[in-house]
Structure formats: C-alpha cells, structure tokens
Fold this sequence. Notes:
- 21% of the residues lie in helices and 37% in strands.
- The protein is α+β, with helices and mostly antiparallel strands.
- The strands form 2 sheets. Strands 2-5-1-6 form a 4-stranded antiparallel beta sheet, covered by helices on one side. The chain has a two-stranded antiparallel ribbon with strand order 3-4.
- A hairpin with a 2-residue loop joins β3 and β4 (49-53).
Amino acid sequence: MKKVEAIIKPFKLDEVKDALSEVGIQGMTVTEVKGxxxxxxxxxxxxxxxxxxxxxxxxxxxxVVPDSLTHQVIDAIEKSARTGRIGDGKIFxxxxxxxxxxxxxxxxxxxx
Length: 112
C-alpha cells in the first residue's frame, strides 16, 4: 500500500476529486493548508523583527491506495490539477505498512 499526498490549488479540488472517482478512489482526506515553495514568501520587518508573510492557500489531499493503483492515482492528480502556472503543487508517495478499519477490524488492503 502507498499513501499519496498531493498539495494542489484549492480551485482544482473538484476536478481532482472527479478524476480520482473515475480511477475508483472512494475516500480521501482533504485539509486546507498554507505554504510556499521555490518562489518563497515575502519578508517583512515588523518592530525590528523580520518575518515571512504571504503563505499561499493550498489544499492537501491524502489517499491510501493499493500498490496496483498508485500510478493511476498519480496520473489522475497530475493531469487534473495542472494549470501550467507556478504553484500547481506537488505529489508525494510514501509506503504504508498497515491499515486497520476500526469498526470492523479489517486489516491491510481490505481496510482501505
């Protein structure tokens, strides 16, 4: 199993969700986040202290998928989230050792 985590532009969430539905994904976790990448934040000085402002609002999607679906999920997110402009986001993939559905006690791929 793999955990696919994508940071995308908020207005692309519906398109990504629809694309993942077509691949067979039935559940996901979505979180509103803020951050910046290569372009960095904007440094300002307030009362003599420098700090970074202008964190860009983003959406983080987390999905745990069987190994066999990993590449389809990545492709679906990549194609549906792309605008071609700076700040389209990133996709990260991590291994998952175990999953447990608390209600039924199912484990492994049956739990996802």
